[in-house]
Design brief:
about 90 residues; about 65% helix; mainly alpha; elongated; 2 domains
């Protein structure tokens, strides 16, 4: 998102210092960071695709349910470990 904003600012602002100041203010970042984003944005041919926003949350799980989840995770890990053993860790 910050790269896309920097790209937009480069197109809208005449002078780099003005774009950096605007970027720093809008994103609550330092001027040095703003200049870095602007430098990266100068290399972009098109906007960077923005993925789906992620949210974090906390849940309380019973020990039984957590044990079941771990068992499922271990079950799924076995085939992956076998594959990596056969074909190497880089696969």
């Amino acid at each position: 998102m910050r790269l896309n904003l920097a790209r937009t600012l480069l197109r809208e602002q005449e002078h780099l210092p003005q774009a950096a100041e605007h970027h720093a203010r809008d994103c609550s970042i330092s001027m040095r960071q703003a200049y870095r984003y602007l430098e990266q944005a100068q290399q972009l041919r098109r906007p960077v695709p923005v993925g789906d926003a992620k949210l974090s949350f906390t849940v309380k799980l019973s020990r039984f349910f957590l044990g079941r989840l771990k068992a499922i995770d271990n079950w799924g890990a076995r085939p992956v470990e076998a594959f990596r053993a056969d074909f190497g860790p880089d696969c």
